[in-house]
Amino acid sequence: MTTKTATIQRAGESNGRNVLPLVRWMTAAAWVALIGGLLISLFNLNNFSDTNTALMVGIGFMVGSVHIYVIRTAIHLVHSRAAQSGEDNTGN
Fold first, then answer.
1. Which of 47, 58, 60, 66 would give a disulfide with 41, using CB separation of 3.0 to 4.6 Å?
2. What global pTM score does this model have?
3. What's the rounded Cα separation, in Å, for the pair 45 and 49?
């Protein structure tokens, strides 16, 4: 007959993954994309149409920055929720 053992990890050690550097990097990337998109768009407002490629690229950078920030927030929330549930399980 075999026995199964379960291990409990501490709250800060969820599978040995530290997502804080990734969260910081994605925050910086989102801001860089937003500022770059704003600058590209502002310098190319003279021909406001869909044929202005630089303007469309600038708008794409701004939209992309929002997507990067949303993904960063989701990663951060999932990690903090996992750490919190691990902490709750340790207390019982």
1. 58
2. 0.72
3. 9
